[in-house]
Amino acid sequence: NVGVDLTTKSLNNKIDGIEVILITEENSADADRGTTLKLRAGDVIDITGDDSDAVLSILGNAGDGVDLGAGWTQQADADGFHVFSQAVTGGGIATVRIDDDIQLADISTG
Known about the structure:
Elements: E1 2-5, H1 9-12, E2 20-22, E3 35-38, H2 41-48, E4 53-59, E5 65-78, E6 81-87, E7 93-99, E8 103-109
Parallel strand pairs: 1-3, 2-4, 3-5, 4-7, 5-8
Antiparallel strand pairs: 5-6, 6-7
């Protein structure tokens, strides 16, 4: 498995205007392979380039994972996605839509 950490400020300050991330590395779904994407609510705001209500969709396969950390509120699943949102310091809401094929690696709600 491969890890991609978007919480690294030197990286996410160079990424802007992103609405969808495809994190899979394999040609077909394989629960033993995949990529884990790590990001936080502030990173969603940074990489989408939206200072208020940012929405980021993450696509992938079985074996892929997403680590969002703590503080998220799970919304109703919609259109094949798990949906999480979090208020961001300074205003705005970060929303992440995660393909329901992806493992929810580390997402704390509350």
